[in-house]
Predict the 3D structure of the following.
Amino acid sequence: MCGRIFIQPTSRQNELLSGLGLGGIKLPTRNNVAPTESVHVIRQVVTGGMELTPMRWWLHPSWSKEEPNQKFATFNARIETVQTSPTFRGPIKHHRGIVPASAFIEWQTEGKHKLPFFIEGAEEPLALAAIWDLSQSELYSCAIITQPANESFSKIHNRMPLALTMAQAKEWLNPHANAAELLSAFSGACVELTVKKIDTAVNNARYKGPVQFL
């Protein structure tokens, strides 16, 4: 899964934005972003260009008549069921996006303790595959695609986000690409990651300071 995100305007993040058609735009620094909070999503707009859109990180389907809520956990979308879920099957076909991130947090449980790890791209920025929706013509919201962990990451957690290369991110954003073919081609894809132990302060979603490495 992917439960927290860090966003910093590094040179690698700037290269990602530039490579995806958003040169000159810089991301704001955001620490320990939690589900239901706002993240920026790169998406293609009807004019054919790219836009960086703030969205609620907890997808609220356009067909729902309810107000946004946390009744179901829709901040992540499993790659195995994203094409069949009523909530996700429309967005995966028509509303694909990229969440640019500097790092994400994952936890290991030891006894009663949750030990957090700070996970970055080793050589590339994190371009997290996402889907989004627009409800009631005013609320943009999104979910990050997750998949079973590869062999190296499974030591940390049994799931991981779908973290794409620049070339893969461009394909993901192509509205004419077939969703089923993309998912088949990218299943298991993940840029090389680095994992560092950090202080448990991030376990509290209200903590928005920098990480303390151990």
About this structure: Helices lie at 11-19, 89-94, 166-173, 179-186. The first helix runs from residue 11 to 19. The mean pLDDT is 94.
